[in-house]
């Protein structure tokens, strides 16, 4: 009894402590002012970007005030840390300028924001190159400049940003190759470079990126063999290599990527793979290996992938019958595409309930004892074929 009331008291005191802490935080934040060099840098940046008209920012006054710092807002926003100099100075730590139709370049004034750890300026109309001095923005943990029209090479100095967890420069107009120096970004967890314009091989230095969880690298002409060091990125959740110029085979050590949820590899030439490597990838939700020179049969344990809802193995050299397990997956699997293979045998009875189905161009045999299914299936097949022919 005594003990519990004591701990209750401790709890109350602890709660009050927290309470006071919040009050003092708030007061400090209210009284503190933004580092003047950051205020003028921000004003200059916004002027260059033509962002004066954005009502949400307190541009001419105190940037670390008003609704721009209010994270309940959607973009744009700023985040400040106002605990500096005994709670009298705020430094800007995050800057998000998302989807505001802004134009301009990557301005040098950003260097004045020395405490900036998040810079997100996606979905605008920014142009020009990424300058080498971007490598001096050493506090950055997140750099996201996707869906703009930046051009030129990716500066090797980007490899100096050792604190980066997330790097995103997809959907731009860059040229050249991935600098090997990016392999120094050993804290990188997410790399989005899809549609970025770069060509060439993924540098071997990327073998060091063992913390990688997400790599999207589709729709840009990367080439060379699919690197086998990716098989050592055992934290990988999502891998997308579609519409590149990669050569097969898919490395067999991809069997180690047991954390994978989403695996999408398509348009591979020169080197066939079997599906043996997916044996232990039981957490897959979507498996898209389309036009990827896959040979052999479908795994007999296909029903043991409980989360699988997209299975697209179209345009390969798959042979054999559909495994019985596939016939039991009507509840989970909503998108099944096995078109353009050499599969044979009969079709699952639930094909009618599958939201999206494509089984055209195979060698399926229709058993006369399954006429009801066959009729429905044929209708589906004809519908699918027709829609394909119409394209
Ligand atoms: C607020 O400022 C006081 C002094 O003015 C300082 O002792 C305290 O640590 C500051 N609190 C925070 C959260 O920065
Ligand atoms: C904040 O400013 C107000 C009024 O200027 C003052 O009364 C208060 O003591 C200041 N708070 C801190 C923590 O300096
Ligand atoms: C803008 O900043 C000034 C201080 O420079 C402040 O007086 C004013 O209240 C701020 N405006 C808004 C909307 O927060
Ligand atoms: C932040 O948002 C809340 C709710 O929308 C609003 O009441 C509050 O005034 C806002 N604070 C600032 C500083 O804009
Ligand atoms: C911080 O503020 C407190 C309260 O205003 C003051 O007593 C203390 O001397 C200040 N410390 C420094 C290093 O300025
Ligand atoms: C950006 O431009 C598009 C097309 O003109 C427009 O629909 C959209 O509202 C603009 N967005 C902003 C934030 O101004
Ligand atoms: C970037 O940092 C390097 C090395 O510290 C320094 O020599 C260079 O002047 C800096 N560049 C800019 C534009 O500040
Ligand atoms: C992309 O960059 C090239 C030069 O590298 C340029 O000719 C082309 O116009 C740019 N395209 C777009 C959409 O910006
Ligand atoms: C994968 O990691 C192991 C152990 O660190 C290492 O021996 C092997 O060479 C690596 N494989 C590749 C392809 O990098
Ligand atoms: C697979 O998913 C389950 C449930 O989300 C999770 O507990 C497990 O750790 C995952 N396995 C791997 C190897 O990531
Ligand atoms: C796939 O089958 C076609 C036609 O039978 C054949 O020409 C091709 O070599 C096969 N490709 C692979 C990777 O087995
Ligand atoms: C088709 O009919 C055969 C014989 O009646 C039966 O064994 C088989 O399970 C049926 N196939 C399907 C998909 O229902």
For this entry, give a set of tags.
binds 2-acetamido-2-deoxy-beta-D-glucopyranose, 14-stranded mixed beta sheet, 391 residues, LRR_Rcpt-Like_S/T_Kinase, 24 strands, 17% helix, LRR_dom_sf, alpha/beta, 21% strand, Leu-rich_rpt, disordered C terminus, elongated, 4-stranded parallel beta sheet
Characterise the protein shown here:
The protein has four helices and 24 strands. With 391 residues, the protein is an alpha/beta fold. The chain has a domain at 25-98 and 109-117. Strands 1, 2, 3, 5, 7, 9, 11, 12, 14, 16, 17, 19, 21 and 23 form a 14-stranded mixed β-sheet that branches. The longest helix has 30 residues, at 2-31. Residues 1-29 and 366-391 have low confidence and may be disordered. Residues 207, 228-229, 232 line the site of one 2-acetamido-2-deoxy-beta-D-glucopyranose. InterPro entries: Leu-rich_rpt, LRR_dom_sf, LRR_Rcpt-Like_S/T_Kinase.
Written as H for each helix and E for each strand, in order along the chain, the element string is HEHEHEEEEEEEEEEEEEEEEEEEEEEH
Cα-atom Rg, whole angstroms? Answer: 27 Å
Portion of residues within helices? 10-25%
Determine the oligomeric state from the structure: single chain
The tally of helices reads 4
Strand portion: 15-25%
**What class, by secondary structure content?**
alpha/beta
Largest sheet: 14 strands, mixed
Keywords: Kinase, Serine/threonine-protein kinase, Signal, Transferase
InterPro entries: Leu-rich_rpt (IPR001611), LRR_dom_sf (IPR032675), LRR_Rcpt-Like_S/T_Kinase (IPR051824)
Membrane topology: Single-pass type I membrane protein
Pfam families: LRR_1
């Amino acid at each position: 009894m005594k003990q519990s009331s004591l701990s209750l008291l401790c709890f109350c005191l602890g709660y009050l402590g927290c309470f006071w802490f919040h009050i003092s935080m708030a007061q400090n934040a209210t009284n503190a002012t933004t580092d003047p060099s950051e205020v003028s840098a921000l004003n200059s940046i916004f002027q260059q970007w033509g962002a004066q008209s954005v009502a949400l920012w307190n541009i001419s006054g105190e940037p670390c005030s008003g609704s721009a710092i209010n994270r309940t807002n959607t973009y744009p926003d700023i985040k400040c840390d106002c605990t500096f100099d005994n709670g009298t100075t705020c430094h800007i730590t995050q800057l998000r300028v998302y989807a505001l139709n802004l134009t301009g370049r990557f301005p040098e004034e950003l260097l004045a924001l020395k405490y900036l750890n998040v810079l997100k300026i996606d979905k605008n109309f920014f142009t020009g190159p990424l300058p080498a001095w971007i490598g001096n923005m050493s506090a950055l943990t997140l750099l996201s400049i996707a869906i703009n029209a930046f051009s030129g090479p990716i500066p090797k100095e980007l490899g100096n940003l050792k604190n980066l967890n997330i790097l995103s420069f997809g959907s731009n107009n860059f040229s050249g190759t991935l600098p090997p120096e990016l392999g120094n970004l050993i804290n990188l967890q997410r790399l989005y470079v899809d549609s970025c314009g770069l060509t060439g091989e993924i540098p071997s230095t990327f073998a060091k990126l063992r913390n990688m969880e997400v790599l999207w690298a589709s729709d840009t002409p990367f080439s060379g063999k699919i690197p086998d060091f990716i098989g050592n990125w055992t934290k990988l959740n999502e891998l997308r290599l579609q519409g590149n110029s990669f050569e097969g085979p898919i490395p067999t050590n991809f069997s180690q990527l047991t954390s994978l949820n989403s695996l999408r590899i398509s348009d591979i030439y020169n080197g066939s793979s079997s599906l043996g490597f997916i044996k232990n990838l039981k957490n897959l939700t979507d498996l898209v290996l389309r036009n990827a020179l896959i040979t052999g049969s479908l795994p007999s344990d296909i029903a043991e992938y409980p989360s699988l809802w997209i299975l697209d193995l179209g345009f390969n050299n798959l042979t054999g019958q559909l495994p019985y397990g596939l016939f039991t997956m009507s509840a989970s699997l909503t998108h099944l595409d096995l078109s353009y293979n050499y599969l044979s045998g009969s079709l699952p009875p639930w094909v009618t309930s599958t939201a999206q189905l494509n089984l055209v161009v195979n060698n399926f045999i229709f058993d006369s004892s399954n006429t009801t299914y066959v009729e429905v299936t044929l209708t589906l097949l004809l519908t699918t074929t027709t829609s394909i022919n119409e394209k």
